[in-house]
TrEMBL record:
<dbReference type="Pfam" id="PF07992">
    <property type="entry name" value="Pyr_redox_2"/>
</dbReference>
<dbReference type="InterPro" id="IPR001155">
    <property type="entry name" value="OxRdtase_FMN_N"/>
</dbReference>
<keyword id="KW-0560">Oxidoreductase</keyword>
<dbReference type="Pfam" id="PF00724">
    <property type="entry name" value="Oxidored_FMN"/>
</dbReference>
<dbReference type="GO" id="GO:0008670">
    <property type="term" value="F:2,4-dienoyl-CoA reductase (NADPH) activity"/>
</dbReference>
<protein>
    <submittedName>
        <fullName>NADPH-dependent 2,4-dienoyl-CoA reductase</fullName>
        <ecNumber>1.3.1.34</ecNumber>
    </submittedName>
</protein>
<keyword id="KW-0285">Flavoprotein</keyword>
<dbReference type="InterPro" id="IPR051793">
    <property type="entry name" value="NADH:flavin_oxidoreductase"/>
</dbReference>
<keyword id="KW-0479">Metal-binding</keyword>
<feature type="domain" description="FAD/NAD(P)-binding">
    <location>
        <begin position="379"/>
        <end position="644"/>
    </location>
</feature>
<dbReference type="InterPro" id="IPR023753">
    <property type="entry name" value="FAD/NAD-binding_dom"/>
</dbReference>
<dbReference type="InterPro" id="IPR013785">
    <property type="entry name" value="Aldolase_TIM"/>
</dbReference>
<dbReference type="GO" id="GO:0046872">
    <property type="term" value="F:metal ion binding"/>
</dbReference>
<keyword id="KW-0288">FMN</keyword>
<dbReference type="GO" id="GO:0010181">
    <property type="term" value="F:FMN binding"/>
</dbReference>
<dbReference type="GO" id="GO:0033543">
    <property type="term" value="P:fatty acid beta-oxidation, unsaturated, even number, reductase/isomerase pathway"/>
</dbReference>
<keyword id="KW-0408">Iron</keyword>
Length: 671
């Protein structure tokens, strides 16, 4: 064991009445298991794996202290002895693995997706369907008591502490800010009155739980909304929270209704550590920083630089339960890195599905998707080393099969090699690095620059075809023949120089990525990124936002789709608005309901809403979907070879790494 690489990250943290074994907090994530049938058994296995993986302190997904505080009518509540007894399964599982765990208490306030929503004032949130009722003084006091009772029950359930969700724009945050608190009684008006709710709440929780119980307060240090808090106000509240009995202050960045990205892959790594650092000298209790920290090196740098006392990582523990152990064993290269895509975690939860992870489909499926040792060590050939083939080959080899992986190119990664060249998607190279390590460790025989033939595949017990996709060229007169036409793969792979006027055909995920790449400013350091989104690093403006000049690209880009309606959002539920806003900021013209008439020397002829237009383009980039690259399957079946088809070779459609990696692992588990 070598802990010298990350001495600050792996240093214990003394809280006085208890000690954390390192400076890693697994941040709160709702998984969807909280409400599902038999969910606690699965949730216990999920948290136990992370405790076994070395996390210093785990925080659960949010549980409401009462009915009105639920996010939606059927979401998780924690307010009775019966519920506390059910949670014993979780706390026992974590403690058996030597971990510590805190229950997050979250009251949705005006974000509640039901008509019983309440808040400081009757002001509907821009992202909500219901206008909340204004809480009476009696309701406020009852809510404080509900939090305190839930915290007391959490202790009885075996939790080591609670986290009070005071950020992200939920109820506690709603009381703090003028944006959502228009009261004129003792709970509103002046800042001293607006911060009364969190202070009284903490006092009540501390009184009911005693002095040897962890109270984490998730403090919104940068609201990123108009009429939010200033830094001066955040400092005032932080000091009052420390006096009231908070053990640890955890950083919250941005409300859910904020129109600034905070955790998506486009956000630079550790982009908000400076926010926590601004508060560091003002309080004497440990501070946790968060958001887009996904490697031990980034975490160590933050702690070594004195920006925080702990780091919070949530999605990185979906990607790899063993993150901390691997760091401790000096095996950082073996970590399956979170790429910040949101596609299988947040995107799932926001539509009521179970969370998982694009790069690790076993996350939240620990009791179901299990790679058991193979009984018969058969010979398996995997054809194609894109994401599907990599996932399947490494998982099959992990089970004990003898696996040969054929790839016609002289490199692995498939479409991920294109994705990682898109600005804001550089993290995809981490997934290729991880799979490269897995292939080595599991003993997969990788044959690069080798197009598998039918004759050599006849000698295998199982053949898995994962040959991927190629761009589809739509039947537009003159398109294929024109020297203006470039398909997206050629553009990205060969780094083709394009002119100042470019049309992009197809506004799915690839079209959005290509348009972003074509309009990206040349240099974008963290300071540039913060400035681009109007983030005030002094936090002297309310909410930390200031009026700013936006970057507009000198290149004219038209992004078009046949389908009428919204253009430019891409496939991500929680990231679509970011893509669209970036394109709009940069001056990209977004056109829906387009019919493509022809391509000639004048340019691209289109019809939009009955109006004919000619776009005088230098180049046309085709992002109009894909077709499968699969000529082997029929030949193999005819030769009576057992064959399975996965990934793009199975379903071309929109490129979907989440689907193909899961498909690869699931097939390997069934072999």
């Amino acid at each position: 064991m070598n802990d010298k690489s990350y001495p600050h990250l792996l240093a214990p943290l003394d809280l006085g009445f208890t000690q954390l074994k390192n400076r890693v907090l697994m941040g709160s994530m709702h998984t969807g298991l909280e409400e599902s049938r038999d969910g606690f058994k699965k949730l216990s296995a999920f948290y136990a794996a992370r405790a076994r993986g070395g996390v210093g302190l785990i925080v659960t997904g949010g549980f409401s202290p009462n009915f009105r505080g639920r996010l939606h009518p059927l979401s998780a509540e924690f307010s009775s002895a019966r519920q506390a007894r059910a949670h014993r399964t979780i706390t026992d599982a974590v403690h058996e693995e030597g971990g510590k765990i805190a229950l997050q208490l979250l009251h949705a306030g005006r974000y509640a997706l039901h008509p019983f929503a309440v808040s400081a004032s009757a002001i509907r949130a821009p992202i909500a369907k219901f206008t909340p009722s204004k809480m009476s003084v009696r309701q406020i006091n009852k809510t404080i008591d509900a939090f305190a009772k839930s915290a007391e029950l959490a202790r009885e359930a075996g939790y080591d502490g609670v986290e009070l969700m005071g950020s992200e724009g939920y109820l506690i945050n709603q009381f703090i800010c003028q944006r959502s608190n228009h009261r004129y009684d003792e709970w509103g008006g002046s800042y001293e009155n607006r911060m009364r709710f969190p202070i009284e709440l903490v006092k009540a929780v501390r009184k009911r739980t005693g002095n040897d119980f962890i109270i984490i307060f998730r403090l919104s240090m940068l609201d990123l909304v108009e009429q939010g808090s200033t830094h001066e106000e955040v400092v005032m509240l932080a000091k009052a929270l420390e006096s009231a009995g908070v053990t640890i202050l955890n950083t919250g960045i941005g409300w859910h209704e904020a129109r600034v990205p905070t955790i998506a892959t486009q956000v630079p790594r550790a982009a908000f550590a400076w926010v926590t650092e601004k508060l560091k000298s003002e309080v004497n209790i440990p501070l946790v920083t968060c958001n887009r920290i996904n490697t031990p090196d980034v975490a160590e740098g933050i702690l070594a630089g004195g920006q925080a006392d702990m780091v919070s990582m949530a999605r990185p523990f979906l990607a790899d339960a063993e993150f901390v152990n691997k760091a401790e064993q000096d095996r950082a290269d073996d970590i399956n890195t979170c790429i910040g895509c949101n596609q299988a975690c947040l995107d799932h939860v926001f539509v009521g599905k179970r969370a998982s992870c694009l790069v690790n489909p076993q996350a939240c499926y620990e009791t179901e998707l299990i790679l058991t040792p193979a009984v018969n060590h058969r010979k398996v050939a995997v054809v194609g080393a894109g994401p599907a083939g990599l996932a399947c080959a490494s998982a099959a080899a992990e089970r004990g099969f003898s696996v040969d992986l054929f790839e016609k190119n002289d490199y692995i990664g498939g479409q991920f090699n294109l994705a990682m060249q898109i600005p804001g998607k550089e993290e995809f190279k981490e997934t290729i690095r991880y799979f490269s390590r897995r292939l080595e460790q599991t003993g997969v025989n990788v044959k690069l620059g080798h197009a598998a033939t039918l004759d050599e595949l006849k000698g295998y017990d199982e053949v898995i075809v994962a040959t991927g996709v190629q761009p589809r060229i739509p039947p537009i007169p003159g398109l294929k023949e024109s020297d203006k036409t470039i398909d997206y793969q050629t553009l990205i792979r060969d780094k083709v120089e394009v002119g100042q006027k470019v049309a992009v055909i197809g506004a799915g995920g690839i079209g959005v990525d290509v348009s972003t790449m074509l309009t990206e400013p040349e240099h974008q350091a963290l300071e540039d990124w913060l400035q681009d989104w109007g983030i005030d690093t002094d936090i002297s403006h309310a909410g930390g936002l200031y009026p700013h000049e936006e970057y507009v690209s000198q290149r004219q880009v038209w992004l078009m789709q046949r389908k009428p309606g919204r253009v430019g959002k891409g496939p991500g539920k929680t990231t679509g608005w970011i893509h669209k806003k970036v394109l709009e900021k940069r001056g990209v013209e977004l056109l829906g309901g387009v019919s493509y008439d022809k391509v000639d020397e004048q340019g691209l002829h289109i019809t939009v809403e009955g109006q004919a237009r000619v776009l005088p383009v230098d180049h046309i980039i085709v992002c109009a979907g894909q077709t499968s690259v699969n000529v082997l399957t029929e030949q193999l079946e005819a030769a009576n070879v057992k064959v399975s088809v996965i990934g793009g070779a199975d379903v071309a459609g929109e490129v979907d790494a989440k689907r193909v990696i899961r498909q690869g692992v699931e097939l390997a588990a069934k072999l």
